[in-house]
Amino acid sequence: MKISYNWLKQYLDFDLTPEKTDEKLTLLGLEVEETETVGSDFEHFVVGEVKEVRAHPNADKLVLCDVDLGDETVQIACGAPNVSANQKVPVAKVGATIPVPMKDGSYLTIKKAKLRGETSNGMICSESELGLSDDHSGIMVMDDSIETGTPLKTALDVEKDTVFEVALTPNRPDASCHIGAARDLSAVTGGELKNPYSNIDEKESNLNDDISISIEDEDKCHRYVGIIVDDVKVEESPNWLKNRLTAIGLRPINNIVDVTNFINHEISQPLHAFDYDLIGDKKIVVKSYDEEKKFITLDSIERTVPAGSLFICDGNGPVAIAGVMGGENSEVTEGTTKILIESAYFNPSSIRKTSKSLALQTDSSYRFERGIDPSIQQKAAWRAAELIAELTGGTINPNVVDVHPVKTEPIDVALRVSRINHLLGTELEKEQVVNILSKLEIEVSSSDEDKLTCIIPTFRPDITREVDLIEEVGRVYDYNNIPRPDSSPFISPQPLSDREEFQERIRELVKSLRYKEISTNSLLSKKEADLLADEDFQIHSLNPVSQENTTLRTHLTGGFLKAVQYNLNRNATQLRFFEIGHIFRNSDEGTWIDGIEEHVHLYMGLCGQSKKDNWQSDENDFSIFDLKADLEAVFNNLGISDSIVAEAEGNNTIVYKYANQEASTLKRIDSELLKGFDIEADVYGAEIDLTLLLQNGIGKKEMTYQPIVKFPTFEFDAAFTVDKGVRAGDLAKEIKETAGEILQSVSVFDVYEGENLGADKKSIAFRLTFLDSNKTLNIKDVEPVVQKIVQKLEKTVGAKLRS
Amino acid sequence: MLDKINDIKEKIQSFSIENEDELEAFRLEFLSRNGKVQSMFGLMKDVPNEKKAEVGKLMNEVKNLAHQTFENAKVELLKSEEKEFGALEDITLPVESTYTGSYHPLNRALNEIKQIFLRLGFNIADGPELEDDFHNFTALNFPPDHPARDMQDTFFVRKSEEEQDLVLRTHTSPVQIRLMKEKEPPLRSIIPGRVFRNEAVTAKSYFQFNQVEGLYVNVRVTMGELIETLVMFAQLMYGSDVKYRVRPSYFPFTEPSIEMDVWWESEKGGQWLEILGAGMVDPNVFESVDVDSEKYTGFAFGMGVDRIAMLRYGIDDIRLLYDNDIRFLEQFKS
């Protein structure tokens, strides 16, 4: 919404500069997003008379003109094709600054110059150079009757103005006009608001023989006022009116439409003027239809208006979409001689629905959908009628039709001064509060000790509660003036939640494992989602922003693979990524919302080279075992290595279970998935369900120091020959279980296949590390344990001890 | 006697030590148990008492000289040895610096914010990204026909007559409702998290972004305290000389509502930049979670992490935050 500085001054005397006004409006809650200077005061511009035009001796495209400026006659070089003697023209004298910026953004100031050897003392201007229009085909030729030497500002009747683009919050319909903004300003400047509407008296509705008006849909139209003006002459508006409208970006049309626009931006009452002679049966019916309607609006576009939208109809059918736009069939044109002025109150949500479904926001719908003053309709109609009569020479029909089925009365709201100070942290006195409210035209009807009864004017539909009044007091007082509290009464801080501590611990841990954190999309394409989970699990957006982002991620894998693909395409060679984020699945149980599992997952993934080729070593690619080691480091740091159970699924996946639930998976990403994400490289990924671990009480970080055993460890190497199908992991597990506590760790130091073993055999060499906290172990202590292991492995998988 | 001592001194000085063997020879000749220095001290018994001090001093000088010469020669020998090295022992051979892990810039910025509010006594809470209508809209005092409830602005996951609508949360504010339902005041938490708006992906907009919400509910919480808290945040985040202002605004779930701007200097000149929205918890919100709004008051605030990160690191295209280009991620070092 645009507010003009000059226009504001019509209603309030204040001595703030445009810059200060910008700041004051913003601090009142009318946030000025942009400030623009429009027009010019045309200092050093006059109307000149071209006396003589002669050829320039040194330039074909220039002529030399003697121009009478009133007090002197000067020579000016000019290149315009249309210049000729006896024209009245706008002249920028030496010292004038052209109000329109040049291409580089700077402004040209006219100096005495020599053009191709001939002096030039000024510039004859085109309309575009003066910022009056886009016309730069030639110089502007002015009316002969203008006296030579008249300052251009006077001749054009223009002025310089500053226009504020205000981002209006939805709670301030009253401020969507100049009187509203001026009212707010008066509250901080102390000036008296000059409201032209306070002198207008309402008249009894007098059913008029010339027009009948009825409202069928009273829910959507609370009031409809009609006034007729006869004998109007449709012409261009006077300059003062055109200046007002052009300043706020409106195109002047004619003296009738311009007045309706002026009133709308003055008091926020959208008006419509019908050509009376085009109203069928001389009747207006306000109604909505149960079916869709096609209707041609005055911009000559045929629109399909949804069922339930409110229309203004005459005897033949719709003549306007109520509150949005009038129809072509009843538009005021040059030939119009009699008009009906409509001034109505329409239900905000009805207008919002219609405007939204038509994707058509007008200055009118913008105000109706916010909620205008339901009491101003008749006064606005009278003011419009008077202005139109004045500008068009028309005659106002003294009868007014005012159909007003739903009346809105001002409401009373109680306000405690103590509550203001309680909520704001201020120490305001009752007098200050009453004074602020009165500036906003909120009258205090009664007050006892602390409690004020406030009458809320009908132009403030947003104020219904005490807290709304407190906001009014606060914003006028200016929140920046609230004293800083003497002390900050922080409540005793609470411990961090387990979740927060756990999640941040994990994040730090994985970073210390040299992973880089990524942040990927929560929404994937359907195609990508299908590669990762069955449709049954997937949750879709009903209104996706694009087909790329339709489905909520069921795993973090997809986002990781997209990041891998993105980087491989850009020749990255070493990718070690992690992410912590939410995943979403349909499920029987719900995490937060019934039927939706929303867990926090950790993803760790590798692709490319773990080492680049250099003088120390050849290049080395990441393998699944690099990731496995990192994943186990995570388990180890969480203290769950011993309670997590690894189960291989085929040879590309290990599922890690905690308390019999799937806590993590480690994968060589399969070729189908890689193809789906357009990746031609080996990729490894591990996904860990942090929510599940947290639910199982892993979040608590409790650490106790264990005394260091004073005795040395005893190592024993044992190689076993087994069938190729036997899993090393199973053997290690078997060894651990058989040996018991004395066995500190098991590692594999060699894996070997060879003909000497037999075609379907392999050898796995284990290093067993024993430790006893009470004594130094020797071979005699260890031998019986090793024997037990050998027998067990032989029995279960037919393993043979090699050495 | 003095001549003997001076003789040893001269021998020490003229001894040539060019290699390990000569170094050992020097040690044997002068510093071993039967070496010249030790035997020199044997002569002490023949020195008359009145001369003992003078001779002793000289002998000590010689002894120190022998040790000094030995140590110096040893260091010199070591140095000359190091002048010869194998091709792979060249300590100047270039290496590749070790690959390090890193946090995403969004998390770095978030961590800064978290650390500030932890210092101001806030806890950290969380909630779901997929929300129901009650938490995301109704309880937060959004009227039924509020534009945010429109398909144009919000991602819907379920929209039906029988059940509550489900949406991807449009802000972190629904967690306020969850906190107040779960626990009696006092409450003092921030809530970081991902939120969603139905917007196309461009340099300036993305369909997902991150917010930090704050909530403080207690007896006698005032707007003055809210502003004080926000000022402390702005000063810790942007420096103690940050220029700020508070101006009225509007949110359905706070009344009065404010926004805070900080003055931002850039190449284009200075301007006010909105950094957060805030306000006093609206009584209707308290009512929806059965908190007595006469007894308790509270404030809430919310800020965009993406925007803060972009300002902080001079990132001019929001898509960089979600492309995960390693050349981008690498710039955010530990």
Describe the protein:
Chain B: GO terms for molecular function: phenylalanine-tRNA ligase activity. Chain B: Residues 113-323 form the Aminoacyl-transfer RNA synthetases class-II family profile domain. Chain B: It is found in: Cytoplasm. The complex is a heterodimer of chains A (803) and B (334). With 803 residues, chain A is an alpha+beta fold. Chain A folds into six domains: 2-32 and 165-194, Phenylalanyl-tRNA Synthetase, Chain B, domain 1 (2-Layer Sandwich), CATH 3.30.56.10; 45-156, Beta Barrel (OB fold (Dihydrolipoamide Acetyltransferase, E2P)), CATH 2.40.50; 212-403, Phenylalanyl-tRNA Synthetase, Chain B, domain 3 (3-Layer(bba) Sandwich), CATH 3.50.40; 411-477, Phenylalanyl-tRNA Synthetase, Chain B, domain 1; 498-695, BirA Bifunctional Protein, domain 2 (2-Layer Sandwich), CATH 3.30.930.10; 714-801, Alpha-Beta Plaits. Chain A has 20 helices and 38 strands. In chain A, the strands form ten sheets. In chain A, strands 25, 28, 29, 30, 31, 32, 33 and 34 form an eight-stranded mixed β-sheet that branches. In chain A, strands 5-4-3-6-9 form a five-stranded antiparallel β-sheet. Chain A has a five-stranded mixed β-sheet with strand order 11-14-17-18-19. In chain A, helix 4 runs antiparallel to helix 11 (430-439), helix 5 crosses helix 6 and helix 19 (728-739) crosses helix 20. The radius of gyration of chain A is 42 Å and the shape is elongated. With 334 residues, chain B is of the alpha+beta class. Chain B folds into two domains: 2-82, no CATH class; 105-329, BirA Bifunctional Protein, domain 2 (2-Layer Sandwich), CATH 3.30.930. Chain B is 40% helix and 23% strand. In chain B, the strands form two sheets. In chain B, strands 1-5-6-10-9-8-7 form a seven-stranded mixed β-sheet, with helices on both faces. Chain B is elongated. At the A-B interface, helix 7, helix 10, helix 12, helix 13 and strand 25 of A face helix 5, strand 1, strand 2, strand 3 and strand 5 of B.
